[in-house]
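Hey, can you fold this?
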Amino acid sequence: MIHRFCIGLLSALGLACSALGADFKVIAPNAAKEPVLEAISVFEKATGHKVSVSWSGTESITKRIAEGEPVDLVVNAAQTFERLASEGRLVGSTRIDFARSGIGVAVPASSPRVDVSTSDAIRSLLLSAPSVVVSTGTSGRHMVEVFAKLGVSEQLKAKTKQPASGAQIADFLASGDAAVGFQQVSELLHAKGIHYLGPLPAELQNYTVYSAAVHSSATDVGIVKQLLAALRSSSVQAVVRTAGMEPL
């Protein structure tokens, strides 16, 4: 019965059945948590295999994989994949891009909602805020460039926090440790204890593409490719949208 269910569901996804019951390891960024969890659910229901996930920030994932941590599937910001593949850490030919996320702006729930739709509005918010927090990752690096573009780098030096890779900016805002924060929209949109104010205006915006590829140490490349295929399923694409991202 389980095998017939596997065949039916995987056939609908264009996948193939394999021996049931194996365990697979995934490492993935917090910013892509909802779509990755949905893909795992699709995969587990279809195949009978189990997946364990280690959640982290993009910088931390890159470091862990570069240092040789063995997993089956790597999900991370797209720009990290070429180097890791060239180092033999990933099977570069298996890479897929499945979503992209812009950078959002948030404040503590105790703070008023303010306009963030223009560069001038962002600049005023930054200058008036007693403290600012940005991530250590793709969004954080871009925000440093935004600060320079807006001409406020010097004013922000003493009041900007940049926690370790994987930290949730919403947690700093909700606890009152920062007055305004910037991170991927997908990490702020549904977070508790904050007001998500909206995305950066177009002239300041930057998008991070999230990709996945089979790790070179994968125990069964064929089966891991089925998990990759699940990342392109219709239900995952729907979750990508509700998470504030765009499917690719």
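Oh, and this one too while you're at it.
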Amino acid sequence: MDKLTELNREIIQCRKCPRLVKHREAVAKRPPLRYKGQTYWARPLPGFGDSNATIYIVGLAPAANGGNRTGRIFTGDRSGDWLYGTLHALGLANQPHSISPEDGLHVVHTYIGAAVRCAPPENKPTRQEFANCEPFLRRELFSLPSARVIVALGSIAYNSIKKILREDPQLKKHRFPAFGHGQIADLPDGRTLICSYHPSQQNTLTGKLTREMFLDVFRKAKSAAGIVTKERRPVF
């Protein structure tokens, strides 16, 4: 069994955070009308993608009626439409939409994880919940030895991955820039850390994050990772 497969099996079985367990299961029992009758995943979400990825994407946490419903990260909600629509446009995914784990979606050169693996109430994990999930994020990062570019979706994801990177003696005293959309940190070990606003509706519906801004982040990630793929017309 490879490291990622073993890790994902452990993630799925986790029940360390009583508040998150209660919330994810309560949402599954009382879904909104548009999802009534569907069987929810209602467990922690494993990572998804190419085990030989050169780009590692880190989000915050699953959506209560997105990943918590479907069982795949960034799947079944508008944030996922933006992410996979962007990956598809840049030749990193075979289709622009992620609906369910059985929809035939494949991504290349990329792997997607999150700082917290269960859907939190009001999308706000506690400090202890971050701490409980941190070993999963650390092991996921170390299980992707080919990942030379890390894309942090949102300031919380940025701070979470930055904390783990600083455990490396080579990076302990490195001066990381403050979070900002499109901010790039070239690390002494040769890796590149790129910041992006999270593609939540709070950002996309207000225009804080536009399609071109999001595409540009992943164009930079592709370039830094040395990936050459053909672009397509974006579908969001």
